[in-house]
Amino acid sequence: MEVAELKFKLQKFPRVKFLCGATPIVYAENISKELGVEVYIKRDDLTGLALGGNKTRKLEFIMGEAIKQKCDTVITAGAVHSNHALQTAAAAKKLNMDVVLVLRGREEDKGNLLMNKLLNADIHIYDVPNSSALRGYMEEIAGELSKKGKKPMIIPVGGSNPIGVLGYLGAVVEIIEQCENLKIDFDYVVCSTSSGGTQAGIFMGFKLLKPEVATLGIGVGDPKEELVEDVENLIINTSKMLDVKENLISKKEIEERTIDGYGFGGYGTIAKEVIDFIRYVAGKEGFYLDPVYTGKAFYGLIDIIKKKNIPKGSRVLFIHTGGLGGLFQYEEIISKMILNYPES
Ligand SMILES: Cc1ncc(COP(=O)(O)O)c(C=O)c1O
Question: Catalytic residues (predicted)?
Fold first, then answer.
C-alpha cells in the first residue's frame, strides 16, 4: 500500500490534534559506537500531552470518537503509575470533558498519581491484583453517571482498542516520511509492549507500507500468550475497520516477533538491573528511559544486539514510548538502588 492511501484511510476517522508535531528521531551515537549497530530513538516521550508518551497518539483518535459520540465524560483504568491514565486525564481536561480514573495500587501523592491530582481528575483506587479486574468498576461508574444524565465513554486499559491502534498507524506514516527526509532506511523497528495497541499499530503499519522492515515488540512482564492474542485481535479488528486484508500478519509471525524474557520479575516490578541500565543510557545519551516499560524493552533490545541476533551494521529504530512519571512514582525504591554507586 502507498503511504498516501493509508493517510487517506486515516483521514476518515475523527481526530483531535494533541501532538506538538512529528516527534524527533535521534541517533544514539555513543551506544551505537559501542555496539556496532546504528541505534536511533523515536522520541515519542515528547508527544506533548501531560508528560508525553505513546498514549497521546491513541488518544487523538479515541477522543475524536468521544466527541463524535457527544460524550461528556471519559472513564479509564490502570495501575496508579499508569501513563495512559495521566494522558487521558490531560486530554479530557483540554477538551473540557470530565474524567474518572479507576486505578489499582497504593495511594501515594507522587509521580503520575500526583500529576492526576493536579489535573483535578476524579480518582478511585481499588485493591485488585490486575488492571483487567477494574473493568467492572468502570462499568458501575458509567452506569451511575448515565442515570444522572451524563454521557460517559469507557476507554480500555492502555487505550488499546482498534481506534487507538490508528494512532500508531499514523506514527508509522510519520516515521516513513521522516526516513525519506533523513535519507535513512531502518532494518528493524522495536517498541515495548503491554496492552498491545502500540505493537499492533507498528506491526500493521510496516506490514502494509514497508514489509521489508522487521518489527519487534518487547514484552515488559505480561504473559506472552495473552499479549499475542491481544495483538492478533487488535490487528484483525483494526484491519476490518480500515477495510484491509485481515490476515495481514499470522499469529505465528506475531509470536515470533513478540519477545519475552525481559520482564524482570513481572509487570510493574522495579528491578536493579533496569535502574542500572537507565543510568547507563542517561549517562551515554542524555535522555531517560522509564522503569516499567522502556527501561526493560530497551535493555532487551541491547541484549538482543549483543547476542548478535541483530547483525552488525544494521539500522534499528527504538520507539521511546515515554513513562517518565514512573521514575518519580518509584523514587524511593530507585534511590535505595542507586545509593551504593561509586562516585563518577
Ligand atoms: C511508557 C509506556 N510504554 C509502553 C507502553 C505499552 O504500550 P501498549 O499498552 O500500547 O502496549 C505503555 C503502556 O501503558 C507505556 O505507558
Answer: 82
Q: How far is the CA of 147 from the centre of ligand 1 (A)?
A: 33
Boundary of a domain, candidates 159, 185, 205 = 159
* pLDDT single digits (tens) 202-259: 999 999 999 999 999 999 999 999 999 999 999 999 999 999 987 889 999 999 999 9
Domain interval for residue 129:
55-159
Note whether 206 and 327 are same-domain residues. Answer: yes
DSSP-assigned beta bridge partners for residue 191? 217
Mark which of 102, 127, 159 sits at the end of a domain. 159
Helix (H, G, I), strand (E, B) or coil at 3: helix
Is 138 within 8 Å of 76 (Cβ atoms)? yes
Question: How far is the C-alpha of 335 from the C-alpha of 16, rounded, in Å?
Answer: 39
pLDDT at 92 over 70: yes
Give a yes or no: residue 317 inside a domain.
Answer: yes
What is the CB-side half-sphere exposure of residue 247 using CA atoms within 13 A? 3
Binding site membership of 195 for ligand 1 (Cβ less than 6 Å)? yes
Cα of 150 from ligand 1 centre, angstroms: 29
User: Rounded to whole angstroms, how far apart are CA atoms 334 and 325?
Assistant: 13
d(CA 299, CA 289): 10
> DSSP letters along 31-99, please?
HHHHHTSEEEEEEGGGSSSTT--THHHHHHHHHHHHHHTT-SEEEEEEETT-HHHHHHHHHHHHTT-EE
| 176 and 240, same domain (yes or no) | yes
The cell for 38 is 546504528
Question: In the chain, how many domains are there?
Answer: 2
The partner residues of 127 in beta bridges, in order of sequence, read none
Q: Based on the fold, state whether residues 179 and 302 are members of the same structural domain.
A: yes
Q: Cβ(268) to ligand 1 under 6 A?
A: no
The pLDDT tens digits of the residues spanning 255-290 come to 999 999 999 999 999 999 999 999 999 999 999 999
